[in-house]
Write a structure and sequence with these properties.
The protein has 16 helices and five strands. The chain is an alpha/beta fold.
């Protein structure tokens, strides 16, 4: 189910014995976990097993015990790894058959389909998926938090805060607590001075989307809202393409990537693998076409008459690159 349906379920007074929360919204993941914990009344009997601390025997023992005094037991597992199906079924059964026990599973990975199938009505279980907040929804959440903090900040500044943080609601909520320390009202000036922008991360998302052949409209709009102009975006594509070409050439010569040798500094393993996988899919003639299109786009943008046409010129370059990549 989704957030709205879960809100209705909670409002009806119905509480599942087991609950799985997942999706791309850490703020709601944490917020609804707290709501569920409070409603179970089992905070005193709670066992938290986070990430590598997960141990099936410990989890099973906690849910397998009964209380003579009617105290509640709650197992909370948070992990980006899937609990094996047999273990998950056992935990769900233990929670379902014991009225004093509850199970909360906060899954932060991406492969959730096989997990949700286990959270059935028969098991007295539910699963709730959260999505990234819209700008309007994010502002409403932050307005409520700012009010609780006694922080004077208007809607425009809250929108700016969310865009600076790439619509990361959890980070924005944390930054509000820091901004509340400042004296007086908080506006965009204070946000720019005290909040670290995630625009570089958004640029990485955009470049990966472009070369992975994913839709670009949403991520490009986000880049522009973060203040990246068309020329800066074009230059970033040029730099990224040059990096991919270096990876391609090095892998052809040596058989395996080595970012330290290629770039002069070592990338995190995940980024090194991403660059390598993209680079080997692009042929040398195709690199030539992409670089030619970028050079033509840069020259066009630098022309005196191009000041009002930069967005159109950038879109033209992006369309060409996407057509080259297939």
């Amino acid at each position: 189910m989704y957030k709205r349906e879960f809100d209705q379920l909670l409002a009806s007074g119905t509480l599942p014995k087991s609950l799985m929360l997942y999706g791309d919204n850490d703020y709601y993941l944490d917020a609804y976990a707290e709501v569920f914990i409070d409603k179970t009344g089992a905070r005193e009997g709670m066992l938290k097993l986070y990430y590598d601390d997960y141990d099936f025997q410990a989890a099973k023992n906690h849910l397998g015990q009964s209380s003579l005094f009617g105290d509640m037991n709650l197992l909370v597992v948070r992990s980006d790894r899937k609990i094996p199906k047999k273990e998950l079924t056992t935990l769900l059964e233990l929670a379902a058959k014991n009225e004093t026990n509850y199970f909360l599973y906060l899954y932060t990975g991406s492969d959730f389909k096989s997990l949700t199938a286990s959270f059935t009505k028969k098991m007295r279980a539910e699963h709730v998926r959260f999505f990234p907040p819209s700008l309007r929804e994010g502002v409403e959440v932050l307005q409520a938090k700012a009010s609780r903090l006694g922080l004077a900040i208007d809607r425009y500044a809250l929108e700016h805060l969310l865009m600076v943080l790439n619509l990361n609601l959890a980070l924005a909520a944390n930054e509000l607590e820091k901004l509340a320390v400042l004296e007086g009202p908080v506006g965009t000036k204070e946000i720019d001075e005290h909040v670290f922008s995630l625009a570089p991360m958004a640029m990485d998302d955009f470049l990966l989307a472009l070369f992975s052949r994913r839709p670009l409209a949403e991520v490009l709009h986000k880049m522009q809202q973060l203040g990246e102009d068309e020329y800066a975006i074009l230059r970033s594509i040029e730099y990224f393409t040059a990096q991919l070409f270096l990876f391609h050439a090095y892998i052809k010569l040596h058989g395996a990537p080595d970012s330290a040798a290629i770039l002069g500094y070592r990338l995190p393993k995940q980024l090194e693998q991403q660059r390598s996988q993209l680079a080997v899919k692009i042929s040398l003639p195709l690199f030539g076409k992409i670089l030619d299109a970028l050079a033509e786009g840069e020259l066009a943008m630098k022309a005196p008459a191009a000041s009002t046409q930069k967005e159109t010129l950038l879109l033209g370059v992006l369309i060409k690159i996407k057509s080259f990549l297939g």
